[in-house]
Amino acid sequence: MRILFVTTEAVPFAKFGGLGDVSGTLPVELAKLGLDVSVVLPLYRHARANAERLEPTDLTISIPLGETPSAARVWRSNMPNSDVPIYFLEQNDLYDREEMYGLKGEEYEDNYRRFYFLNRGALELARALGIGFDVVHVNDWMTGLIPIYLKTIFKEDPYFKETVSVFTIHNLGNLGLISRKNFELMGLSGRPEVEEMALDGEICQLKGALIYSDVLNTVSRQYAKEVQTAEFGEGFEELLRSRSDDLFGILNGIDCSIWNPETDRLIPFNYAAENLSGKAACKAALQRENGLPERGDVPLLGIVCRLSEQKGLDMLVEVFEDFLALDVQLVLLGTGVPEYEDFLRDAAERYPTKLAANIKFDEPLSHRIEAGADIFLMPSRFEPCGLTQMISLKYGTVPVVRRTGGLADTITDYATTNLEEANGFSFNSMQGRDLLACTKRAISLYQDRAEWKRLMLNGMKQEWSWRKSAREYVKLYEHALSRKFAVMGPSNG
Ligand code: ADP
Ligand code: GLC
Fold first, then answer.
1. What is the fold, at CATH topology level, of the domain defined by 277-463?
2. Of 32, 101, 147, 455, which one has the fewest beta carbons inside 10 Å?
3. Taking residues 197-209, what's their average pLDDT?
């Protein structure tokens, strides 16, 4: 099976959030299962800087962009520790920028153009490579035009006649809205499909992908159910319910070659379930570097996330004073909504011995927090999957989460009847006081060292790798292909 995996992020080349982690690992895991996978990514400024052995190919593709076509030179490297090719589209006007998506929480105004170029470019690249891909796997609205092209402009193209599209919903919150005028650039104007994509007077690229992809999946089973309800469906619940036979939930995994406390070079001391002394040393080091009193007995809480509404920070803000009145310390790492950033900076000044607010994107620090914290906080309003709670489990850092999406699928509350499975704490409501109560349950158990250790070890020993999920993606591809051929009927063999 030949897979073209198109994405706007992939570790180690470019990362903004979990999409980068997933796209950096899943293609390689699929290749290990015998699939022939190629990845396509824009040649961002930092991708150029981060790519080892980046080489120009002799391919240049031409993409209609307004009045005149624009050319992209194609570069190539390999995905880490593999021979999976990753192709980069070079278009410096669009991609040679400081950030991937925008500055200071504001999206670049021409993102529609930047990602159109990637969508069209990926298909032109497939042609230029002369490969008829069986599956084009795309991710979120930024690559959501591809399924529509495959059903329209490229439908009769010999390279794509037998191709199916798989659309993974990592985040239904991002709609990819574009004005009708700008949409003219995409070469689809006047087609009946476009009217189906209309939303509030604009064109919604996400909606188009939800309608025209051959199969859909989200990144946890629970979120796949949730998106079919009014609470989480962002207005697409009916559409998604109508496609429920084509909608699957496959839990993400974590890359254990990157996220493993036994081998992680970004943490000061390595450790394993059999010997946790390194974890205590990581905690002391984290307290030191964050200017917090070096106390082994105090529960150290960690937060690593985009500071967005999704992550439920308003619940924390709501009970902040009560929260910090507890005998706890909190180390936070994140960037995003300026109001949250300001609040946290200000709070850190008011509580210097309790709170350290690192307002930045800092990969090595994210590892040190995962290793050094005792408890990981994740009160998300919605969470399609969430990787940081799985990373925390692997690092013996006990998660406190809101029971939603992938958090519900991965965290088993200590209050369960099956203590062998218990690995954290969870609460249901979107109330700050329930987050507070849940955290109090955790810090109270923290005093019981034997029980706490049991929770840590349960999480550390559970399987959070991609092994199982990658196999499920193979089945998903097979399902999409078998459906297409079933529809084509016996005359096509
Ligand atoms: P989302 O994709 O919604 O942001 P995930 O939990 O799936 O959430 O993935 C987030 C990824 O981004 C994790 O690998 C996490 O460590 C990383 N991350 C988030 N914020 C930061 C930050 N400020 N610095 C470094 N890494 C971060
Ligand atoms: C999204 C989601 C997150 C998920 C990640 C990778 O950004 O918010 O829950 O883990 O994508 O799929």
1. Rossmann fold (3.40.50)
2. 32
3. 96
Q: What is the residue type of 264?
A: D
pLDDT tens, position by position, 291-312: 999 999 999 999 999 999 999 9
Closest CA to 164 of 173, 154, 177: 154
Mean pLDDT of the chain: 95
Q: How far apart are CA 395 and CA 304, in angstroms?
A: 14
Residue 118 to residue 22: CA distance in whole angstroms: 19
pLDDT of 491 strictly over 60: no
* Other beta carbons within 10 Å of 457: 15
- pLDDT confidence of residue 493: 34
Q: Give residue 386 CA to ligand 1 midpoint distance, Å.
A: 9
Could you tell me which residues are beta bridge partners of residue 357? 332
| Mean pLDDT for the stretch of residues 472-482 | 96
Query: What's the 195 CA to ligand 1 centre distance in angstroms?
Result: 35
What confidence score (pLDDT) does residue 53 get?
87
Choices 3.40.50.2000, 3.30.70.3490, 3.90.226.10, 3.40.50.2300: CATH for 2-253+467-488: 3.40.50.2000
**3-class DSSP assignment, residue 3:** strand
Instruction: Supply the pTM of this predicted model.
Output: 0.96
Q: Give the whole-angstrom CA distance, residue 335 versus residue 365.
A: 13
Residue 127 neighbours by CB under 8 Å, 6+ apart: 157, 159
Q: Is residue 381 lining ligand 2, measured as CB closer than 6 Å? A: no
What confidence score (pLDDT) does residue 488 get? 57
Query: Could you tell me the two tokens for 408?
Result: 């519900």
Q: What are the structural domain ranges in the chain?
A: 2-253+467-488, 277-463
In whole angstroms, give the CA distance from residue 127 to residue 149.
14
| Preceding omega of 338 cis (within 30 degrees of 0) | no
pLDDT in tens, 330-381: 999 999 999 999 999 999 999 999 999 999 999 999 999 999 999 999 999 9
Task: Report the C-alpha dihedral over residues 136, 139, 143, 144, rounded to 10 degrees.
Answer: 90
Q: Which of 304, 307, 335, 389 to mutate to test the pocket of ligand 1 (most atoms within 8 A of CB)?
A: 304
